[in-house]
């Protein structure tokens, strides 16, 4: 086994910037089953922005919105809509991780900073990746408070729909820039190419794209990176770039160990998924072979099946969760 040149312990959280953090928090609470765990805002002394922490098992979302006109994030939100700003990593040594990343060519966004209160300390640093996306390095092992200084604890239990953790995050980049960002992840974060798809593998009139899946040294973190390919009509990647206003995170895949139960409960909670025609399931056995699940049940829910040499994968995609089409989720 090759040595991991940039050890990452896992995804700490996904940080979204949104127009209305309170409404977004209640949306994810009611429709995705998240607990609301912590809050920061005017009542806790934050005068410029407000944030809510949501959690389900090892899956954490932070939702933040500006409180005043002229906030630095107001313009990006206006350009992108609600969007993933930060895919944050847990690391053992924030200072070293930041220094190594910058030495390897990363553009700094925030130098290592200590946030302290009576509950301890959180250390954070950030670097820039494609578009307006950041990667933060975080060590919160020395903190015993709600989340970090400036937050108060909340205890609002969600339905807990069986979502466990982030499986992967998909980034869409401009035509001709996929290999540039693949090289960036290899050089800066020590990722390696996990799998590659070209326009012959993923091509219809509407979905022509090229994709390379990058994986961290321990393979715990996976980032597919897509760029558009030539097609008869504008592809979903082109549509994303148009509506989002550039490169960014297209969707976050959330892992469950019982996709039938999770998707059933998500549908009951009001989440809409993309339609899959019955013909897909009529041809399923010939395409992927024998599977353990009841195909009729998969068809009822619209769950997709893919097979490779390691086995088969069950997944499903939500419809866009905001008025703009770019942002959606996969359940896997």
Please give the domain count.
2
DSSP E strands, number: 17
Instruction: Kindly provide the name of the CATH class of the largest domain.
Output: Alpha Beta
Helical content stands at: 10-25%
Task: Please tell me what the overall shape is.
Answer: globular
Please provide the ordered H/E string of secondary-structure elements. EHEEEHEHEEEEEHEEEHEHHHHEEE
Low-confidence stretches: 199-205
Q: Quick one: CATH superfamily of the largest domain? A: 2,3-Dihydroxybiphenyl 1,2-Dioxygenase, domain 1
**Proportion in β-strands:** 35-45%
Widest beta sheet: strand line-up:
6-7-8-5-1-4-3-2-9
If helices are DSSP runs of H or I spanning 4 or more residues, what is the number of helices?
Answer: 9
- CATH fold description of the largest domain: 2,3-Dihydroxybiphenyl 1,2-Dioxygenase, domain 1
The name of the CATH architecture of the largest domain is: Roll
For the sheet with most strands, the description reads: 9 strands, mixed
